[in-house]
Amino acid sequence: MIDLNTNPPEGVVVEEADNLKSWKIKLIGAAGTIYEGEEFKLEFRFTPQYPLEAPDVVFVRPFVPVHPQIYSNGHICLNILYKDWSPVQTVAHVCLSIISMISSCTKKCISVAKKDCLGFPELDYGCNWSAYVRPF
C-alpha cells in the first residue's frame, strides 16, 4: 500500500485506503485512447483469504466505463480477477491490467449478452478479447 501511495502507476490514484477491507481507487484513462482523461472509480474489497484469493474489484457508479467487458453494475470480466489470480499480484498490477484492458478498445459499447464474457471470437467490439475474457 505504501508503494501505491508514494509511487503509483500512471493513471492510478488512491482515494481511500484507511481500512484493510475496502479501498477506493481512481483510474484515469490513458492518453491516446478513447477513454483519455476520463476518470473511473474502482472499489477493491478484500476478504480474509486475500492474497490467496483475488479481491472483489468493481467499478463504482456512476464512474463505470462503457466497455464490452464491463457490465453496467460495475463488474469486470477479466481473467486475473478469477481463474488466473495469483497471490503475487498486487493492487497496482490489477489496476494496470484494467487500464490495459480498457485502453485496448477502439470503440465504446456495452455487453449485449452474458456470452460476451465467454470469449466467443465472433463477438468483435473493437477489443482484443483473447487477452482478457474469462469463461464462466
From TrEMBL:
CDD domains: UBCc_UBE2W. The keyword Signal does not apply. Signal peptide: none annotated. Residues 1-136 form the UBC core domain. Gene3D superfamilies: Ubiquitin Conjugating Enzyme (3.10.110.10). SMART domains: UBCc. InterPro entries: Ub_conjugating_enzyme, UBC, UBQ-conjugating_enzyme/RWD. Keywords: Ubl conjugation pathway. PROSITE patterns: UBC_2 (PS50127). This is UBC core domain-containing protein.
